Amino acid sequence: MQRSRTDREPSKDFCSHQPASGYTSLIFGPGRIQGAVAGEPWCAYFVSWAAAQAGAPLGENGEGLGSVAQITDWARRAGKLLPAGTTPRPGDLILFGTHHVGIVESVAADGTITTVEGNTGDAVRRRQRAPSEATGFVRL
Questions:
Q1: What span, in angstroms and rounded, lies between the C-alpha atoms of 48 and 67?
Q2: The whole model's pTM is what?
Q3: For 24-138, CATH number?
Q4: Lowest CB count within 10 Å: 15, 19, 55, 92, which one?
């Protein structure tokens, strides 16, 4: 299964479609992210799934979270929310307001942030982001 597609230009329609083929069962299948609903925005479901796979589940009880607002609220309560302008680390979540979330893969010397994001162009993709695009980070 191809997990990252970089062969075409990413779309700007964040978190608005059902997961690309192959991710549906990972995110919405039995025993996956609690409360996940097929057809709903899925960037938060994707980072919840990835965090759980890495041993750092999101949510009060590790249940995963289905929206960027829920992730932000949980991170604030748990003392994991970092402000924009913080230098992120690989594995941190990167927030784009309340409409999109991704995972920091690396940070270049010039500050460019490489991310892995679900539901960007209706796929999981590696993206290059300017630090100014982030509205905050979640340290897992």
A1: 10
A2: 0.77
A3: 3.90.1720.10
A4: 55
